[in-house]
Amino acid sequence: MKALIVSHEAGTKPGFVGDRLTERGVECDLHVMVPDTSDPERFEPLPADGFDLLVIMGSYWSVYEDAISAWIGDELVLIRRSHESGTPVLGICFGGQALAAALGGTVERSPETEIGWYEITPANGVRLPISTGPWMEWHHDRFALPPGAELLASTEACPQLFRVGRSVGTQFHPEISVELATDWMRESSDSYLDSCGVTREGILANVSHNEPANRRNCFDLVDWFLDDVAKS
């Protein structure tokens, strides 16, 4: 089995998600959309086929942002075509928002920014197939579910986990590790972090504290996606 993993910038790596896919025998092909974040209109075209799973990672940008108008349309088409043809799609944060948008949902600015570690609450009547966390959140936007999707979990601010057929979208970041968070901190300016009320030291300390449990929880999520969702 081969997975196409779409990383929108060099810093948005698949982390523990990629680790677990590899452990499960999945061949992972990493595609970085924008090699230089200072020039988001210059991008690497997406392959149209040749994969059995599609994984869409997070991004520094918003799905609706003009800065990425040169390529976001192509990505949404790839997501929609993959889903409709039966290729399982896993969307994470921006990827979850892109999955929702591609299938007829919407993405908007969230009234509340979530940065840090949050428990997710199962939807009414849902027996959650993964841990309630805490999971790492880092987002300023939120999605509304596409038609036919099942909400599985949320926080007070927004939906966090949904499934539609053989595809799954998350708002949280199961892939996070200390190594990945260090990359994120390198790309985050002091003024941006100050505006969010967080510090590099605090973010990294919390990721370090939660990393062992998050690795287990992430592996469980990937296993559920492969064994229950993708094979359904």
Beta-strand percentage range: 25-35%
Structural class: alpha/beta
End-to-end CA span: 16 Å
Strand order of the largest sheet: 2-1-3-4-10-9-8-6
According to CATH, what is the class?
Answer: Alpha Beta
On the 0-100 scale, what is the average pLDDT? Answer: 96
Structure write-up:
This protein has 232 residues and is α/β, with parallel strands linked by helices. The protein has one domain: Class I glutamine amidotransferase (GATase) domain (Rossmann fold), CATH 3.40.50. The chain has 6 helices and 10 strands. It has helices at 15-23, 72-84, 94-102, 178-187, 190-196, 200-229, and strands at residues 2-7, 27-32, 53-56, 89-92, 106-118, 121-122, 135-144, 150-154, 159-164, 167-170. An 8-stranded mixed β-sheet has the order 2-1-3-4-10-9-8-6, sandwiched between helices. It has a two-stranded antiparallel sheet with strand order 5-7. Helix 1 (15-23) links the parallel strand 1 (2-7) and strand 2. Helix 1 (15-23) runs parallel beside helix 6, helix 2 (72-84) packs across helix 3 (94-102) and helix 4 (178-187) packs across helix 6 (200-229). It is globular. The model has no long low-confidence stretch (mean pLDDT 96).
